[in-house]
Specification:
Length: about 70
């Protein structure tokens, strides 16, 4: 993740870590996961609820990433 977005990711992980899992995957080391979820840009954030992808964000958009609260709650 770019340094601009990493602090936001950490902030959300700290805030919602007891209710959601925050996982970083290096797609260079795990091409299978990238293919499975259609990851074609870095960074890509997938929001999974009940085993289904309910939202995705491609790019380092901190404001949009913070909107994840509505998905997590």
């Amino acid at each position: 993740m770019k340094s601009v977005i990493a602090p936001v990711f950490k902030e959300l992980s700290d805030e919602y870590g007891s209710r959601a899992q925050f996982i970083k995957v290096d797609v260079d080391d795990n091409a299978e996961a990238a293919q499975k979820y259609g990851v074609s840009a870095m960074p890509t954030f997938l929001f999974v609820k009940g085993g289904e992808v309910v939202d995705r964000l491609m790019g380092a958009n901190a404001a949009r990433l913070k909107e994840v609260r509505s998905v997590l709650l």
